[in-house]
Amino acid sequence: MTRVYNDAGEHIPVTVLRLENCQVVAQRTEDKNGYTAVQLGAGTSKVKNTSKAMRGNFAAASVEPKAKLAEFRVSADNLIEVGSEIVASHFVAGQLVDVTGTTQGKGFAGAIKRHNFGGLRATHGVSVSHRSHGSTGNNQDPGKVWKGKRMAGHMGQTRVTTQNLEVVSTDEARGLILVKGAVPGSKGAWILVRDAVKSGAPETAPRPAGVRAAEAK
């Protein structure tokens, strides 16, 4: 994360996201697959670390082996040619996006840290259990602890989507996208950025996508 300043001189906290050679690897069509989507690949992977089946897929698309693959549902008229490279200008300033990633793992955490409990009183009979979660059930009826009861346990390292984050600016030359606020995941982690499901893409966004055409072989 870092910060930038707008025209009014206001400080805006942003997360810098980098597109790493993001290319269309395959298309999914209604006739062949029963749905319409594009498969994108990002990063690079050594050939020796890529299975033979995936080598064939990458070879058919005439792209280098990718470290990460993901599918994005699109409409039939917004399919992108295989081999095209998605660039940062696919997103426009002011656009809202949903960001999906795996949160940082915190290990085994208590109820106060994990669920923001208030804890027990500092005095008046409370001894050695100030940070405990308190009662977990009733008496003989129902005579059990209900599933989903908020208690101590493993915290973090879960797939989370943060919705409606604003794109502050983009840098196509360096492949950077600046998003206002924080996104789930640690530094260097892979994340998915898509148009906000609750607001969609703005009219100024490129259609079908902001791409750099595949180079002729």
UniProtKB/TrEMBL annotation:
Annotated protein name in UniProt: Large ribosomal subunit protein uL3
Residues annotated with N5-methylglutamine modification: Q140
Oligomeric and partner information: Part of the 50S ribosomal subunit. Forms a cluster with proteins L14 and L19.
InterPro entries associated with the record: Ribosomal_uL3, Ribosomal_uL3_bac/org-type, Ribosomal_uL3_CS, Transl_B-barrel_sf
Free-text function comment from the UniProt entry: One of the primary rRNA binding proteins, it binds directly near the 3'-end of the 23S rRNA, where it nucleates assembly of the 50S subunit.
GO cellular component, one term: ribosome
Family to which the UniProt record says this protein belongs: Belongs to the universal ribosomal protein uL3 family.
Source organism, top-level taxon: Bacteria
Post-translational modifications reported in the UniProt record: Methylated by PrmB.
Keywords: Methylation, Ribonucleoprotein, Ribosomal protein, RNA-binding, rRNA-binding
SUPFAM superfamilies: Translation proteins
Gene name per UniProt: rplC
